[in-house]
Design goal:
Its main location: membrane. InterPro entries: CD300_family_receptors, Ig-like_dom_sf, Ig-like_fold, Ig_sub, Ig_V-set. One of its GO terms (molecular function) is transmembrane signaling receptor activity. The chain has three helices and twelve strands. With 172 residues, it is an alpha+beta fold. The longest helix has 19 residues. It starts with a helix and ends with a helix.
Length: 172
């Protein structure tokens, strides 16, 4: 009979962890071309507009090191080739990595710095590709070069936040 309280606790714990994961969502994976840039949108819920947001690098969230962090305002913060900007109205912060190198490939994390408790976080796999892209729906016919829009990246990649964005942001 002791198994039921333990099973209930495990299910309840998983339920609340799942709810916390919905507080911050981002694409599971993005890719960009070597030498170009990639932008990653990270969506959060109401109530965290003034809270600092960050982008960190590491295989696990516990071992990640912060690359760039906002102050809680909407001002863009740049550190090296990486910038972060928070839009309080849309409740989305966007991280842009410029002049991509192959060494930029790895696991990154969108994060909200809660200070008093465990931060909300969402992993993003970043892949840097060499050469020209073979597919992009935003083909620029005037120069016969491919271009990427940071606003389309979230819709082009397979993302667990797609449904969340669709329901909460609507079509623009």
């Amino acid at each position: 009979m002791r198994i039921f309280p333990v099973l209930f606790w495990i299910l309840l714990k998983g339920y609340f962890q799942g709810l916390a994961a919905l507080e911050l969502t981002g694409p599971e994976a993005v890719s960009g071309l070597w030498g170009r840039s990639v932008s990653v949108p990270c969506q959060y819920h109401e109530g965290y507009q003034e809270t600092p947001k960050y982008w960190c690098s590491g295989i696990t969230w516990q071992s990640c090191s912060k690359v760039v962090e906002t102050t809680g305002s909407e001002a863009e913060v740049t550190r090296g080739r990486v910038s972060i900007r928070d839009n309080h109205t849309l409740r989305v912060f966007t991280v842009t990595m410029e002049n991509l190198t192959l060494e930029d490939t790895g696991i990154y994390w969108c994060g909200i710095n809660l200070r008093s408790k465990s931060d909300f976080n969402s992993p993003v796999s970043v892949t840097v590709l060499q050469g020209e892209s073979t597919f992009n729906p935003l083909h620029d016919t005037s120069s016969h070069r491919w271009r990427t829009s940071p606003y389309v990246v979230g819709f082009l990649v397979c993302s667990r936040s797609f449904l969340f964005n669709l329901l909460h942001m609507g079509w623009e």
